[in-house]
Amino acid sequence: MTDANPLIVFTPSGKRGRFPVGTPVLQAARALGVDIDSVCGGRAICGRCQVTVGEGEFAKHGIASRAAHVSAFSDVERRYDRIKGLAAGRRLSCQTRITGDLVIDVPPESQVHKQVVRKEADTRAIEVDPATRLCFIEVEEPDMHKPSSDLERVYKALKEQWGIDNLSCDLAIVTNLQKTLRKGAWKITAAVFSRAPGGGNRLVAIWPGFHDRAFGVAIDVGSTTIAAHLTDLSTGQVAASAGVMNPQIRFGEDLMSRVSYVMMNPGGEREMTDAIRQALNTLAAEVARQAGIDTADILEVVLVGNPVMHHLFLGIDPTELGGAPFALATGLAVTCPARELGLTLNPGAWAYVLPCIAGHVGADTAGVVLSEAPHEQDEIMLAVDVGTNAEIVLGSRARLLACSSPTGPAFEGAQISSGQRAAPGAIERIRIDPVTLEPRYKVIGSDKWSDEDGFEEAIANTGVTGICGSGIIEAVAEMYLAGIINQDGLIDGSLAASSPRIEAANRTFNYVIRSPGSGGNEPVIRITQNDVRAIQLAKAALYAGIRLLMDKLGINQVGKIRLAGAFGSHIDVKYAMILGLIPDCELSKVQSAGNAAGTGARIALVNVKARDEIEAVVRRIEKIETAVEPMFQQHFVEAMAIPHKTAPFPHLAAAVTLPAPKDVAPAGQDGGERRRRRRG
Amino acid sequence: MTDANPLIVFTPSGKRGRFPVGTPVLQAARALGVDIDSVCGGRAICGRCQVTVGEGEFAKHGIASRAAHVSAFSDVERRYDRIKGLAAGRRLSCQTRITGDLVIDVPPESQVHKQVVRKEADTRAIEVDPATRLCFIEVEEPDMHKPSSDLERVYKALKEQWGIDNLSCDLAIVTNLQKTLRKGAWKITAAVFSRAPGGGNRLVAIWPGFHDRAFGVAIDVGSTTIAAHLTDLSTGQVAASAGVMNPQIRFGEDLMSRVSYVMMNPGGEREMTDAIRQALNTLAAEVARQAGIDTADILEVVLVGNPVMHHLFLGIDPTELGGAPFALATGLAVTCPARELGLTLNPGAWAYVLPCIAGHVGADTAGVVLSEAPHEQDEIMLAVDVGTNAEIVLGSRARLLACSSPTGPAFEGAQISSGQRAAPGAIERIRIDPVTLEPRYKVIGSDKWSDEDGFEEAIANTGVTGICGSGIIEAVAEMYLAGIINQDGLIDGSLAASSPRIEAANRTFNYVIRSPGSGGNEPVIRITQNDVRAIQLAKAALYAGIRLLMDKLGINQVGKIRLAGAFGSHIDVKYAMILGLIPDCELSKVQSAGNAAGTGARIALVNVKARDEIEAVVRRIEKIETAVEPMFQQHFVEAMAIPHKTAPFPHLAAAVTLPAPKDVAPAGQDGGERRRRRRG
Predict the structure, then answer these.
(1) Is residue B322 within 8 angstroms of chain A, CB to CB?
(2) How confident is the model at residue A251 (pLDDT cuts 50, 70, 90)?
(3) Quick one: how far is CA A430 from the chain centroid?
(4) Residue B142 pLDDT > 60, yes or no?
């Protein structure tokens, strides 16, 4: 049939169909379900619907020539090009009409459901599919011959021009509607939120005329730091990031001391809630400033945090989390107006808080799950987020378990004699010569190792003030590799004879890393027997939690490991395994997940289906409370040894030469204590 | 089969079924879909599920004897009887177990969907089916062996014990949940609202333990007065009523002057919104005080009002309603948290505002429709609510039309020389002797007619200060019946010769109703030619609006008439018809509807389906804007005559002897004006 309608083929989707001459390309795309973006609804304003008329593709598709097959570059496109610029070869698909057989290429940035690569280390892509969408509409003017209200005509426009129905709106929209419509000469941009409780679509914001800025902010509320990422809801790209210290630190360094503060000070939870909400507002203002947008352009906020932070930013007294049975007020995802959290974003902005998993396994861990996707793995994945508690998730597509293990603050440098926060001046890397027992180390703030020329000059400003969490892990692991401690963690006092680094102290021994000259004010940096034991207790707790979940799952081996959080980012996975923090695993399959909780928040922000996903996954995670598991204590005791008393470490042994078992004579009282503990 | 399970028959429903021995009667009722109320869910606390074991019914149902067929009065029932009292013969159906064949009578007050007779004048009954229900639940305690959050266990209890799912809640519920659960020892009462935007069920309030008070308040926000009815949501009964003057009166007596105030004073709408919301809070506190409840027991508020009031209490600038095209910001029903309207009821209370029909036909008229139900009539019903504008609804089950007609304030006594508000001292009834032309009248505040002994003493406190709306209607109608004015409304000056009541004034004549003694300060009460004309203009506008709708419907006759509002309550329908305010109709079928708008609000408060009903009806009402209807002017001119120039009045003529047409010589300039006006 020679008089058939022209054929149009879209790439990369390959979707094709025949349409009458004169049909706009955008309209044909919609009819075929081709994914082309638009905010203005085909009015040549937003420029989101750009396409390329497929040069060179014609022969391939059996289409002979290009010239006559689309309408000429129109005045409307010329105007758009003049005002906003249109790259060479690009057309606005809403203005380009079919005149003959045709191939149209939709570039990635013109797709509604753009893919955002989640992070460099991983190829899992996130589809941009936000809960809040902007819709430019032209609204009928009021007509006395067919009386109807302004809001009804807005709903009609959203239905007819965008296919959106089942609409409701905030009272604030109604109170601003008439002025906005008249200011915009009956053209407005509406933000529609699709996730309000109960269902339906909610009109949350309106602007006169065309408005093309819709942002969201993903916030990870940590006990120590709060990090925010401002994200463009139309592209999924991060526009700005910022972090601040959690101001609640003035109420207590660690979580439990903050819970205690509330218990001791009636109304204290209100103070802490106010402090955190103020910090959230400061952060939101800061990322908006960086990106050069108004905070009123922030239409959504997604929050994660551990259970205590979660309760406090929601305004819930965390007292119940301070003691058994550790009952959460709510573990369900929370969707509420952001203004109810005291956040000053767009007045119609909504907040989404990821679900909590259990009393000690919070929305931050849900963020880790969303980011690392253990529920999509065929092999068993272990995801660990280490803080004062370690939050542990283990499993695969088939089954997922989670628990929290009370590691205590040793991994963060607390309760360690030379321990300190990860800050300039802190030792973060260390190597020990197994022959001479001499250490070399790196300090935060300098690139040089301590045995390199110019090291002392490089650190002159800060000095060496202590050792941070990752430094302690390496120090103890290297002490083990160098034979300074044996598998039981006992410092071999007999080495004092051959090395001044081994220092007697009361009835035990220390390993001295740095002893400053007599003139300086810098402290001696050493690892004491107590420090080693604190690390052993912490790592045993972590391992025991992991082992408990492995038992429940009936496995002896994990396929891959993700270490999340600041600690997981800085730690060298090899040392973590030497120390026995984590079970044996192929070393290449142990990776840092960075701020996976924050990444999870960003995923939930840009992709609405991810919210359903994490809510469903969290529901089916089996929650294990270590405190009531009899096996936990046994695993804990067995895990005190380095790397472990009984578990085999084939992958580790293949990668690292582990020292032969060594009998170290216990020195005085301390060794006896250790033995009693091991009998447990 | 002799060993079949016992048969249980419920009256009055007649539902029947067989259940194992030991089944509680309430459980059998639920299984059969028998309507028995319960707040406590079968725990012998609420006493809502009372039944009577059907004495004397046994033979009729073929059941031989009563004694052995239910379990004995239990200790639990005895305890309930001791604490709250149980009438003789009553049993708690949750505690009464089936032991043999049985008839159970469910008294009306034990039914969930109790019927409330809407008002004395009408037999239409309203089913009690509120949007907010109380549910007593027992919540599982937290258990470390199966960690779950408190809110999740509350939702589980609501699902398992009440069949309620798809739940969401306010953040405030979550923040109070843990303390409430522990205070109530894991027993709480939850209020669940089923009408939140988007759908689903919303947990709006919680109390520790058993709580059995749930109220709603229906408020009619009139331009002049605001009336509130506190209603028990479980029985549908009004618990208290109160009214206050609308404090907005200080911004302007009538609606348009208030709109002008906003136009002239930037931010003036905020002042008026604050004033009205403050009045609503005062009223709510007053009805709560009267009923002896806490305002926190008020869980819902339903509001009606004309479009300007509607916009102002919602916080919407009413400027657009002040001029063509009279666009409403929203005509849709509004469902929003009551706190967003600044109302201090229960913090989780919801507000429902009935839909508006058009720019001059408001939510108050929707209330009239819900109350008078023209959409359920087989014959044509005319419902009229007269204020500064008359709001008119006409139609039946098949088709419904509405419009507003600019009657002006004459019917309220404004712009009438001796006019005043309906208040003590105002003449409200008047009769004129057709022979002597002497009047007799009644004054608000006294039961005596002016020709009765002791009249002057009875009114000594107030004097006679003016004439109110209903008095003016009667005065003009009686003047017509007495031949003082002719059909054209012209005062017959020739009568001045025979009666001192006819008084010359400039070039026209007055009718003097009361001329106080020379010593007093009281005014002369008279009806001037201008007064008659003002009433003619008002009634012509009203009639023209009605006639316009009759044209649209293609009818010449209405089946029944409802006069709503204060004016409609005080007016004598016969005089309204003599004057030609309303079309001819069988007099017995013209009734006052009282405060029908407020009644509509009460119906929407106690019956959730009524909200769907009125929203659906309003959508299909055909809205007519009189300002753009060419026929309106013609109808207006024709309706100036008393009762009407051309329309027949067969029913009126049968009931009242109307004067023969009379030619009155026009007196001077005024008559000329009148003739010009009639020519249009």
Answers:
(1) no
(2) confident
(3) 29
(4) yes
Residue A117 confidence class, pLDDT cut points 50, 70, 90: low
Band of residue A347 on the pLDDT scale cut at 50, 70, 90: very high
Closest CB to B330 among A151, A199, A319: A151
Q: Across residues B108-131, what is the average pLDDT?
A: 72
- Contact check, Cβ <8 Å, B178/A143: no
| Per-residue pLDDT at A502 exceeds 90 | yes
Coil, helix or strand for A636? helix
Q: How many Å apart are CA B495 and CA A583, to the nearest integer?
A: 116
Residue to mutate among B139, B178, B310, B631, with most A CBs inside 10 A, is B178
> Stretch B308-319: mean pLDDT, rounded?
96
Q: Which of B175, B203, B262, B316 is the mutation pick for testing A, counting most A CBs within 10 A? A: B175
d(C-alpha B383, C-alpha B590), whole Å: 10
State the Cα–Cα distance between residues A368 and A563, nearest whole angstrom.
Answer: 10
The pLDDT score that the predictor gives to residue B520 is: 66
Question: Which token pair is B487?
Answer: 């059909």
A328 touches chain B (CB under 8 A): yes
Assess B347–A contact: CB distance below 8 Å, yes or no. no
Are the Cβ atoms of A151 and B331 closer than 8 angstroms? yes
- A198 near B CB under 8 A: yes
Contact B200 A199 (CB under 8 A): yes
CB-CB neighbours of B460 under 10 Å: 9
**Interval A409-424 mean pLDDT:** 86
Q: Supply the DSSP symbol for A585.
A: -
Partner residues linked to B16 by β-bridges: B9
Segment A371-399 shows an average pLDDT of 93
Tokens of A113: 């459901």
What span, in angstroms and rounded, lies between the C-alpha atoms of B373 and A285? 54
Query: How many other CB atoms sit within 10 Å of the CB of residue B144?
Result: 18
Distances (CA, A) of A72 to A77, A84, A110, A197, A198: 10, 19, 21, 48, 48
| Calpha distance A597→A594 (Å, rounded) | 9
HSE of A659, CA atoms in CB hemisphere, 13 A: 22
Q: What is the mean pLDDT of residues A270-296?
A: 96
Residues 6+ apart with CB under 8 A from A103: A8, A9, A10, A11, A53, A54, A57, A58, A61, A63
* CB-CB neighbors (< 8 A) of B158 in chain A: none
**Of A334, A337, A303, A317, the residue nearest A273 (C-alpha):** A317
Tokens of B316: 């919407």
Q: Do B179 and A317 touch (CB under 8 A)?
A: yes
Answer yes or no: are the C-beta atoms of A466 and A420 closer than 8 Å: yes
Residue count (chain A): 680
Which range among A56-60, A251-255, A387-391, B194-198 shows the weakest confidence by mean pLDDT? A56-60
Measured at the alpha carbon of residue A456, what is the angle toward residues A453 and A459, in degrees to the nearest 5?
120
Distance from CA of B406 to the nearest CA of A (A): 15
Picking from A643, A228, A597, the residue whose alpha carbon sits closest to that of residue A384 is A597
Cα B410 to Cα A148, A245, A356, A383, B272, distances in angstroms: 29, 70, 66, 80, 25
Kindly report, residue by residue over A209-224, the tens digit of the pLDDT: 999 999 999 999 998 8
- Range with the largest mean pLDDT of A545-554, A637-646, B407-416: A545-554
